[in-house]
Structure to design on (435 residues):
């Protein structure tokens, strides 16, 4: 096994990149967004914003980091799109856009890939309908059809802690004057709230309730953004786990977002014995950013449940890989949400890790990995799920024989340059067929 060594940056945060381009489109004036993530998912939002008549300039184009200039049209300045807005595989794009489209004076249709059409949309259409929106799903699934309707305030308790649902409601809330209050059963990521506040909106959070205040005299308006998107902690998770489990590794990841609604994995890995240090903390665009130093460490099993799950929800595929190298039985519960992500991330993950020799059992709301497992190389498949594909590639680093991850192009849905970044750190990872 070749150790991972060196210093790299991971691409910009996916959640923040979606929000930045969408909210900048609604601002009054020109926004500057640096280190924006040009990935499959976020490009869907950028194209949707352009289809709504907003000019987005790429001021600087590095391979995996763009600087954008967005000419905001104000809340009421979007144009009727020529056709359905294609959200591709991006749950965040379709659910956030649903909130914005609900407030428009023109009809629209939101659609996406076959994979996206399988994901539940009732969780977002129901509260929007309760706010007065005329939004319909086909049996709870995309395509979503939205028509103009007057909106009003709401007090709403979400059944699952979903940042996408919360965000859709706050965004729809910009199109009416009353208060919007959303209760979250757990601490879902708060990037929308932070960005809205930076743009002058009155948003507060207390006792699990997030509130968009009554409209100020003169109506609601958003100021333009000037921000640098932090590195994506969810992308950093892959080299973090790789350096933790590949002997003799020592890496530094620069400029990673460490907003605590996102860093559940850090706490979980530390509880397993991992060596992860956060240094040089600064605030950028209202978000906490730091450098992460990660070294190899022998890890032991841990049980994860409750609110930590919400703050680590996207990291369980790669956490499962860490668990295969841990001594003892590692379990995650309270994570039924994993079944409605890009794919059923419990069933598909268990199936693919077993092909590599892992011992893993499914539960309705999680799974148990019986470690340590000796992994052997095998042919595995991402099932067109970016995070599953990257997790399997990390597993391949500690397997006895080479591992081939099929259907790997989807890794660029969130982490363009994943293979190259890992190779730069010295990981024995390469494309079989270049994409
Ligand atoms: C996201 C929220 C989470 C997360 C997804 C991105 C976001 O989904 O899993 O990858 O950007 O708001 P839910 O809001 O459905 O939990």
């Amino acid at each position: 096994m070749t150790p991972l060594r060196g210093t790299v940056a991971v691409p910009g945060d996916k959640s923040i990149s979606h929000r930045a381009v969408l909210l900048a489109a609604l601002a009054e004036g020109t926004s500057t967004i640096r280190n924006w993530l040009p990935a499959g998912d976020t490009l869907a939002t950028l194209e949707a914003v352009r289809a709504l008549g907003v000019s987005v300039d790429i001021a600087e184009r590095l391979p995996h980091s763009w600087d954008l200039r967005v000419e905001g049209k104000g809340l009421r300045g979007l144009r009727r799109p020529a056709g359905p807005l294609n959200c591709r595989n991006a749950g965040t794009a379709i659910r956030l856009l649903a909130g914005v489209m609900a407030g428009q004076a023109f009809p629209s249709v939101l659609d996406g890939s076959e994979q996206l059409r399988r994901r539940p949309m009732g969780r977002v259409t129901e509260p929007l309908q309760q706010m007065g929106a005329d939004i319909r799903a086909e049996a709870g699934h995309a395509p979503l059809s939205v028509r103009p309707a007057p909106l009003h305030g709401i007090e709403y308790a979400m059944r699952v802690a979903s940042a996408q649902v919360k965000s859709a409601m706050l965004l729809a809330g910009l199109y009416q004057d009353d208060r919007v209050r959303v209760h979250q059963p757990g601490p879902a990521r708060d990037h929308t709230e932070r960005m809205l506040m930076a743009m002058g909106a009155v948003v507060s959070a207390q006792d699990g309730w997030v509130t968009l205040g009554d409209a100020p005299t003169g109506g609601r308006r958003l100021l333009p953004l000037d921000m640098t998107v932090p590195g994506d902690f969810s992308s950093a998770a892959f080299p973090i786990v790789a350096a933790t489990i590949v002997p003799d590794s020592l890496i530094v990841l620069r400029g990673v977002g460490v907003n605590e609604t996102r860093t559940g994995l850090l706490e979980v890995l530390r509880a397993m014995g991992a060596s992860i240090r956060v240094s040089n903390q600064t605030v950028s665009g209202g978000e906490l950013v730091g450098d992460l130093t990660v070294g190899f460490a022998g890890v032991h099993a841990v049980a994860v449940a409750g609110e930590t799950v919400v703050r680590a929800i996207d990291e369980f595929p790669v956490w499962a890989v860490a668990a295969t190298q841990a001594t003892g039985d590692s379990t995650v519960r309270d994570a039924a949400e994993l079944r409605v992500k890009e794919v059923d991330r419990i069933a598909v993950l268990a199936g693919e890790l077993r092909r590599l020799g892992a011992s893993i059992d499914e539960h309705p709301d999680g799974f148990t990995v019986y470690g340590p497992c000796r992994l052997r190389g095998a042919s595995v498949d991402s099932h067109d799920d970016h995070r599953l594909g990257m997790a399997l590639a990390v597993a391949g680093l500690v397997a006895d024989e080479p591992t081939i991850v099929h259907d790997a192009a989807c890794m660029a849905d969130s982490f363009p340059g994943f293979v190259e970044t890992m190779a730069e750190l010295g990981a024995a990872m390469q494309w079989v067929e270049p994409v």
Remarks:
- The first helix runs from residue 14 to 26.
- The first strand starts at residue 5 and ends at 9.
- The pocket of shikimate-3-phosphate is lined by residues 15, 18, 92, 162-164, 167, 188-189, 313-314 (CB under 6 Å).
- The CA atoms of residues 67 and 334 lie 38 Å apart.
